[in-house]
TrEMBL record:
This is SAM-dependent methyltransferase. The lineage of its organism: Bacteria, Pseudomonadati, Spirochaetota, Spirochaetia, Leptospirales. GO terms for biological process: methylation. It comes from the Bacteria. The keyword Transcription regulation does not apply. It comes from Leptospira yasudae. GO terms for molecular function: methyltransferase activity. Residues 45-138 form the Methyltransferase type domain.
């Protein structure tokens, strides 16, 4: 039997995100409450990490969690119990989802399209598995405005940030990727979150319908 090891950096990141749970809730609570208020009883989440979104799901929700980062698993399991969410954890990549065509009512993700290797392929998979009329709910940090001071900061810290946060790209144009994904309708809001994590202040959030 092959035992899959958990990289030390993944464990460190899990600790960081767990420690920041209350801060993340304080900064994002209004957006997340609005985004997640009408989700069905069964939800697919891509890259839930340690479970920052769990508190916004209805108690008793079944969460089909696609999370390839082993370092997050133990904390995700514990937090799902805290928030009375039924967790079905899958150690898989979002680029190839384990669901049948047109079988899912809702897919959610936050801070995921910045990290996956092929965000366009992830969105293609999301469209494939969603039922007609099904929705994809997202919250992502994105590239800063061109020519801005913040864009300069993102470029300076891009490589160390990507290493520390296991592939996170600070300057992805996720807005464009979503617009090219071919959803029947797409609503995107742009906002700057005044967090002390300066490079990730620019955000987009919204809903895409198949």
């Amino acid at each position: 039997m092959c035992v899959q090891k958990t990289p030390t950096l993944s464990i460190v990141n899990a600790f960081i995100f767990q420690t920041l749970q209350n801060y993340i809730h304080y900064k994002y609570r209004k957006i997340k409450r609005d985004l997640f208020e009408e989700l069905p009883d069964t939800v697919v989440e891509l890259g839930p990490g340690v479970g920052s979104n769990l508190r916004y799901f209805k108690p008793g929700t079944t969460l089909l969690a696609v999370e390839p980062n082993l370092g997050m698993h133990s904390r995700l399991k514990k937090n799902s119990e805290t928030y009375s969410v039924k967790l079905e954890l899958m150690n898989l990549s979002a680029e190839k989802l384990p669901f049948s065509d047109s079988s899912v009512d809702a897919v959610v993700c936050s801070w995921v399209l910045c990290t996956v290797e092929k965000p366009d392929q992830v969105l293609k998979e999301v469209k494939r598995v969603l039922k007609p009329g099904g929705k994809f709910v997202f919250l992502e940090h994105v590239a800063a405005e061109r020519g801005s001071f913040l864009e300069w900061i993102q470029k300076i810290v891009l490589k160390p940030w990507k290493w520390l946060f296991e592939g996170c790209h600070l300057n992805r144009d996720t807005n464009q990727t979503l617009n090219h994904a071919g959803f029947s309708s797409l609503t995107i809001e742009t906002i700057s979150i005044p967090t002390f994590f300066l490079p990730i202040r620019p955000h987009i959030y919204g809903t895409a319908i198949k």
